[in-house]
């Protein structure tokens, strides 16, 4: 059976996902076949597997770091918040409907057999499993029905490393408070502490390390630095939504919806020094970008109303009228049409809503969810982005709406269906573009062609080295993460904790 290790945190965004990804990369480098696991993930960034099943993006990143194919067994339960008190529930990659928080908490223990089935399948296939917890194990109001932190650690008999975030301050209180709020048998599971995101001279920290080890009677197995690596964020707490380097030749503004989803669609631009990628949540921040992107959202109608109240809708329409490219992806594409129709209340609000009227199309929300990986080509693309015409494209669809054009016309992309048949997706009208396709900027040359087209529209000559191999770039980042963690984690001690002989 596979050896296990669980990474828990003192709070959300303490760095559990990154530490888990780095340890998985180290295991890969050391010749082990390792897999990630998170029993329950709450995030709006999701991914569609080859089988057409939906899982959390964080475990996809961790699988990539481990050099293995992502499967839904690595994330058997995914919660996608639709409101402040409710989420869409996905089990083994399949949509189970929307539930309020209280309803889900009443049912979640019934999902334990599904969690253990997934974990058991991974145990049969891999040498090691690195498990990620969620939030904090010391949420005393949630511990009774826990299926993701200490409750899961007990089910699969996993040793635990507890990660604290020193960058936010109070790391010793975080670690000590978390340990003290646990029950005795839970404390015994914690075999090591990690102080994460440290900046400065470690010798100044050493007395505190000694004291926290004495107080908790648990060794500190690493003090890891604030890592400057570019990996995809799990959710809207991630640092990437703060934007990229200023001063790029091309300025791309992404509207930061309250329910923004799959914002990793644009992460490739962060690897391109020619681009300033900004996430915009207010009218004063918008400015005069060279392109506006309306990203995916888990609640299209509410986020369109939010944009309308902010004055962002009118500003984006004005930019489009001036010839600035406006690109909508998934929910952003739906907003750009003439109307949004939700007679069944799929999004919660129900009824109908006027769209931005940038594209001649109408969207109907339906209960059935589209989930599939796709390949194809860009069609005849209008306007500034016309150099994309005919370019190979691949990505994935994940949506609960159907958008129908008003009248005939070419779509933005032609996708390959069963038997090689083509189907049209999205629209291209002047400087306005829309598609349901996620992840297409990651494809070879797509982001580079887009940036070159925007530069040409500004009268800027293309410079050398503008192209980026995003897959190679990601592999480089995983190796850099592993190299840094090796310097600051006691991996010999961690392997010993797991019962692995080296």
Short description, anyone?
This protein is α/β, with parallel strands linked by helices and 502 residues long.
Characterise the protein shown here.
This protein has 502 residues and is α/β, with parallel strands linked by helices. Helix content is 30%, strand content 29%. The chain contains 15 helices and 26 strands. Strands 2-9-1-10-11-12 form a 6-stranded parallel β-sheet, sandwiched between helices. A 6-stranded mixed β-sheet has the order 15-13-16-18-26-25. α1 packs parallel to α2, α1 crosses α14 and α6 runs parallel beside α8. 49% of the residues are buried.
Mean pLDDT over the full residue set: 92
Uncertain parts: none
Radius of gyration: 23 Å
| Structural category | alpha/beta
Terminal CA distance: 17 Å
What is the strand arrangement across the widest sheet? Answer: 2-9-1-10-11-12
Helix run count = 15
- Specify the biggest β-sheet: 6 strands, parallel
Write the layout of secondary structure elements.
Blueprint: E1 3-9, H1 16-29, E2 34-37, E3 40-42, E4 46-48, E5 54-56, H2 57-66, E6 77-83, E7 86-91, E8 94-100, H3 101-107, H4 112-125, E9 128-132, H5 150-156, E10 160-165, H6 171-181, H7 184-187, E11 190-198, H8 202-216, E12 220-225, E13 250-255, E14 260-261, E15 275-280, H9 283-286, E16 291-294, E17 296-297, H10 300-310, H11 312-321, E18 326-329, H12 331-335, E19 339-342, E20 351-354, E21 361-378, E22 392-405, E23 413-416, E24 422-425, E25 427-429, E26 432-435, H13 446-457, H14 470-488, H15 491-498
Parallel strand pairs: 1-9, 1-10, 2-9, 3-6, 10-11, 11-12, 13-15, 13-16, 16-18, 18-26, 19-21
Antiparallel strand pairs: 4-5, 6-7, 7-8, 14-17, 19-20, 21-22, 21-23, 23-24, 25-26
Helix pairs in contact: 1-2, 1-14, 6-8
